[in-house]
Design brief:
alpha+beta; 513 residues; 10-stranded mixed β-sheet
């Protein structure tokens, strides 16, 4: 029998605002208005009517990208207490007002955390919501249009999640705080692990992501609902330039979108009392949260994720299921490396016929800042509801293959009580893993472990090297910025190349042989 305190998701809603795509920035809803629209949709989806709102005692909002940038807050769009502002707009007064840390893992982290609060009797009804308005915000700033966004609703929300900076000082100095600079390092590490040439790997990446674009093309909420062939994605062109080698533009998450999504959670007991139809109920059968060794320069290697592997084992054990039991999958897809590592660690083939996304993924559906996975969860709820008894999995990823969360969803009831293993119990083993030591001021002969060449619209601009010294210590460096060196890094096999690394005042310098 299902326990009365069993946590369930009972409502979901999402929307995509297209005014910015038309250049009509003044007509755009602001972030709170987007939050309100998505939340109103989610509340209506429950079928419980107005009697639900007085029971909302937990409003949790995913941190806005404008409030979470490593490079500093953007000049407008600040909300002192977004959960309270949202509550005021929907007519709910929650005693718990949560605002998350930055990171794409946070929507699934929120669902996992809220489920535990509900199971423990600490939350009655929770509204989890997030929005991104970066397409309008950046577009308006570029046009010199003043947007009157922001609000001080009073009070201070409870800040939850891991708020540590994504990079250390050495990584920041070498520009690894930009995801477009960091994820290509993993990609070339994966290529080396798979022993592929650059061209072989490029074609494999196109083949991996083309099905994502096909799903996006059929999704009315997708920012770019356009199918792209593997060759189109893999081949650099005027419309598909390199961003961070080996990634072309069509392989990168698109963060400048206007989107919002929300879900409502409660217990089986409250859902029954409210008269929420059981056809709306979605159970969280398994979940887990974990982080890899925090800094990119600390990782065991650049082609695996012990945290995703551990998290998958814990979540599937909790659910009493395996990967083969899944009907629907949404792997976090900011860049191909995130998908490849997720597939490897969870035991999913990259060409799995079930597909690897239900939305279309961050480069095509849209990378709604920290909130993309709320859209994954909403879409997954719709998928499992449409096929009663089916199972779906959502994965989430924050920073640079750093923070992870996973959820397994189904309309099939969970028997007994709901209980998950404390993430701290298995995080200790991940944190204790042996890993290379970083040498901050390297001087001597070194070998390239992985690398990337960053581009702008004019061509290659910066080479980033992660390498090993003769004593096994790891180093981080830039290469000379001249076109000949940068083109050579891409034209010749650079993995395993030797060279000379010297320390600098701000950045180290690696000169390849």
């Amino acid at each position: 029998m299902t326990d009365d305190r069993m946590p369930i998701l009972i409502g979901c809603g999402q929307l995509t605002q297209r005014t910015a795509q038309k250049g009509k920035f003044e007509e755009s809803l602001d972030p709170l208005q987007l939050l309100t629209e998505a939340s109103t949709k989610a509340l209506a989806d429950t079928g419980a009517g107005e009697k639900l709102k007085p029971l909302i005692d937990n409003i949790s909002v995913v941190r806005f990208t404008a409030d979470s940038s490593e490079t500093g807050r953007l000049p407008i769009g600040q909300y002192s207490n977004a959960p309270r502002s949202l509550g005021n707009r929907i007519g709910a007064k929650a005693r718990k007002e949560y605002y998350t840390a930055a990171g794409g893992n946070t929507p699934q982290f929120l669902v996992n955390r809220t489920a535990e609060e509900i199971a423990n009797g600490e939350t009655t009804v929770a509204l989890l919501a997030g929005s991104e308005d970066l397409a309008t915000l950046i577009g308006a700033l570029n046009k010199g249009i003043a947007l009157k966004w922001g609000e001080d609703a009073g009070g201070e929300p409870i800040h939850i999640g891991d708020n540590r900076r994504g990079v250390n000082d050495i990584e920041r100095a070498h520009a690894l705080y930009f995801p477009v600079n960091s994820y290509p390092l993993f990609e070339n590490g994966i290529r080396g692990h798979k022993k592929r040439t650059v061209r072989e790997h490029q074609l494999a990446l196109g083949k991996l992501f083309s099905p994502f674009s096909k799903v996006a093309a059929a999704n009315p909420h997708a920012w770019f609902p356009t199918f792209r062939t593997p060759e189109e994605i893999a081949t650099p062109s005027d419309n598909n330039r390199y961003v961070g080698f080996p990634y072309t533009k069509y392989m990168n998450a698109v963060i400048q979108v206007d989107m919002a999504a929300a879900v409502v959670m409660t217990s089986v007991k409250i859902a029954r009392e409210l008269g929420v139809p059981e056809s709306k109920w979605v159970y969280l059968h398994g979940c887990a949260d974990a982080t890899d060794l925090w800094h990119v320069t600390e990782r065991v290697n650049y082609h695996s994720s012990p945290a995703i592997r551990t998290m998958g084992q814990k979540a599937f054990a909790m659910a009493g299921r395996s990967v083969k039991d899944l009907d629907f999958i949404d792997l976090y897809s900011c860049f191909p490396s995130a998908v490849e590592i997720g597939c490897q660690e969870l035991g999913i083939a990259e060409d799995d016929p079930r597909g690897l996304t239900v939305t279309g993924g961050l480069p095509y559906f849209g990378g709604a800042g920290n909130n993309y996975v709320m859209h994954s969860i909403v879409t997954m709820m719709e998928k499992v509801r449409s096929k009663p008894g089916s199972f779906g999995m959502v994965t989430a990823n924050g920073w640079f293959v750093t923070k992870h969360a996973l959820g397994i969803y189904s309309t099939t009831p969970v028997n007994g009580s709901w209980k998950r293993e404390d993430p701290k119990a298995y995080q200790r083993d991940i944190d204790a893993m042996a890993h290379p030591e970083l040498e901050p001021k390297p001087d001597g002969e070194g070998t390239v472990e992985t690398y990337t060449v960053m581009h702008d619209r004019g061509g290659p601009k910066m080479g980033i090297i992660v390498g090993r010294l003769g004593n096994g210590k790891r180093f981080l460096a830039h290469t000379p910025h001249d076109p000949a060196t940068l083109n050579d890094l891409m034209e010749r096999e650079t993995l395993g190349r030797r060279g000379r690394v010297t320390p600098g005042e701000k950045t180290n310098l690696f000169v390849p042989q």
